[in-house]
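Standup notes
- DV: blocked on the single-chain target, sequence here:
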Amino acid sequence: MSDTTRALMARFLEATGVGSDATDVVLAPGGNLPSAFAVSDLAQAAVGAAAAALARIVTAEGDRRANVTVDRDLASAWFAWSLRPDGWEVPAPWDAVAGDYAAADGWIKLHTNAPHHRAAALGVLGVPAERGAVAAEVAHWTAEELEMAVVEAGGAAAAMRSVDAWDAHLQGGAVAAEPLVHVERATAAGAEDLPVFDPGRPLSGVRVLDLTRVLAGPVATRLLAGWGAEVLRIDPPDWDEPGVVPEVTLGKRCARLDLAVDAERERFLTLLASADILVHGYRPGALDGLGLGADVRRAVRPGLVDVSLDAYGWSGPWAQRRGFDSLVQMSSGIAHAGMVATGGDRPVPLPVQALDHATGYLLATCALAGLADRRAGVGGSTWRTSLAAMSRILVDTGIGPSTTGTAIHPADPDRGTPVEHTVWGDARRLPPPVVVEGAPLRWDLAAGPLGSAEPAWLGD
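- DV (later): unblocked, structure below
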């Protein structure tokens, strides 16, 4: 067991108010993903915190102590990819233009997976969607000038900065001044309308509305589904993310609504009125612009556990900036520190999308802490965190001298796990990375495509 793992888990539990005495957490030893940062410690700690939050509910409601065991190797592996297709392939997760480019004075990452983000970047550069043409044009720009131009055009990009440069940046300072988790307990409704507790499926009957996309939010709601929650994911009519859908829709039903259309927004509000948990990843103010601000949500669903994330934090000049894990790694110094640690000459990101995954498990911890509050009669609550805040947590653990890891040995998904019959073909999942005594993590629905279900709760 790593002292770093235990310290990280304590930070997550303190930030969410779960309390380290809620359960006994066994951190099973294992290897390390290759990185200058403590990525496997982060993975095991984030998974352990979420499990401790669930065990707190089991202990309080089930009148028994629920011990937790977190497999370090499996936690690390789930931070990468949990699915092994049988005879088919998951589409590539990255657009052909996306990636790191050498600018006149450093490096910049262009995130072009979404068509409108690709169009914005190519429009600024004035080139076709060809990597060679993009690279040639990027070389004429300074990294920060191009970053600003792409962002102002509605795209997503990040210049590579060092940790020191990020600390000195206005947004880096704003993130450093924020708590890891913002918590507000503002509504009065209690536990009277929560489902009857089932100790074997602790979230059975709990309804979760998922308004998130790649990648942190879907990781959170996937975990909640694994402990029995009914998760209904809502996407816009034209959205798809084929490279990650088979990974993150496990256990969920996925529907579509256009929240800018009055009738469909009303249908969403009907769903919200009987939801227990809402998880959303819209930029600050975006839901307000759709007529779905915090006051509306509380009025429609008193007692709601409202959980959200953004990329760059909730204050400062970049609070509304579009962002993704890979961009935050560039901005916050992680990719630069990896480059320095390896003695290389180009950005070296984390070996997995660790900010996304760790934030996802933290979001699940928040949701479970809010649910425990409701069961105790405290009422509804609002929880917010960010990828940049998680980056700060990881950087605070220290930077290693090299990226050498030790072997990760996750269990073979072909042994001991059932076949998952998806619409794309059969597949196997890795075994769960954590065991909560008496409440196994399992999923009742195979992963499925976006928009494959009606926007309605089961039984309604």
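- Follow-up: The CA atoms of residues 377 and 409 lie 43 Å apart.
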